[in-house]
Amino acid sequence: MIINSLKTALISLWGNKVRAVLNLLGVMIGVFAVTVLVSLGQGLKDNISGMIQGFGTNVVFVTSGKIDTKNPGGASGQVNPANFVTGDILTQNDVKSLEKLDHISAVAPMSLVSGILKNGEKTSTTTIFGSTPNILDALDVLKIDKGRVFASSADSGEIVLGSMPTEDLFGTENPIGQKIMLNSRELTVVGTLQKAKNASTFGSEFNTMSVIPFDTATAFNKNQAKIYRMVAKVDDAGNVTTVKQKMHETLLSNHNNTEDFSVLTADDLVGLFNTFITLITTFLSAIAAISLIVGGIGIMNIMLVTVTERTREIGLRKAVGATNAAILIQFLIEAIVITLTGAIIGLIAAFIADLIIKSKTELVPNISSGTILFAVGSSVLIGIIFGLWPAIRAAKKDPIEALRYE
């Protein structure tokens, strides 16, 4: 009976192609939007996870502001959002205290300087960090390509360029020993960084960064030693948990038991980013899913009109022995076929969109089997929910009154 009902439903839909296309349009758009957003979210998670793991499993980060890694989306006590962007909480005394801890091989403070690098008429917008020479020891992802790193954190007026600003300012020319300008001050290029192996949307940030001595950054920041982040290299990955706890206790003591900082491992960072991306993706997907509901309402309205238009057909079928169940199943299958077809077209469009995004950007969207099952399952459910009422109305029609209908 179901196969016959399916054949009848397909014939009916083929006979009203324009109406069928309008019916499935809302479902198609909804499935497309939800699938693309979820795949982008998953691709972003994979991207960030790969970037953070590129730091190394034995790297620990210290940042201003308290972050509750167990409940990043909730409020844990009185948290001041301004602490996350201030450079006045972490101090050079904190750096010295952490350097004394066991199992820590390098601690590098990170300051920020805003400005545009210039070489004659050529310019480059880059992220400029002020740090100590051991920043390369603390972060495995940073490697010298040409030249050297500056010898100390003293204000030597030297700079190590990332791969992108090197190309922007010098092209194929050797930059070592050349002079460039930053905010009207002349700096000497003493080294360049290798292109980051982790080629990703966020991994490319490593290629844009340049590094200057910490004291040089302090001079640019009006002689204020601002530390926004600190990076610590642990001698062995097996000691990370113990060292993290020791770092937390040391900084807490330095800050008079005020927890206005966060100590984060690579796993903590991955978890935080994944939580935030999941929240954002879920929110946007919920908005996109509204079109599925709108599409379902449209299907219900047009199916009700269809039931009225096909009243005589229903009467004839009942007159030759069709049961109420057979009529109900036929109209219900028509609704499901419409939504399922819309879901399939939406998925195909989503795959095409993801391929375009993959070819044009460094982000790799990830359409999982779970996403496909959700798209198909939700479309079938929409078809059942919004097709049930028209199907029931069709099944309840009196065959004699239906045959009289003009």
What does this structure look like?
The longest helix has 44 residues. It is built from 13 helices and twelve strands. Helix 2 crosses helix 11, helix 2 packs antiparallel against helix 12 and helix 3 crosses helix 8. It is of the alpha+beta class. A six-stranded mixed sheet has the order 10-5-2-11-1-12. Strands 3, 4, 6, 7, 8 and 9 form a six-stranded mixed sheet that branches. It is 54% helix and 16% strand. It folds into two domains: 181 residues, no CATH class; 132 residues, no CATH class.
Mean pLDDT score, rounded? Answer: 81
Relative strand content: 15-25%
Helix content: 40-55%
Q: Give a quick account of the main beta sheet: strands, pairing sense, barrel closure.
A: 6 strands, mixed
Shape, principal axes of CA atoms? elongated
Tell me the Rg in angstroms.
31 Å
Number of domains: 2
Give the strand line-up of the largest sheet.
10-5-2-11-1-12
Structural class of the helix and strand makeup? alpha+beta
Q: Which parts are unreliable, with pLDDT below 50 for 5 consecutive residues or more?
A: 74-78, 199-203
User: Helical stretch count?
Assistant: 13
Distance between the termini: 29 Å
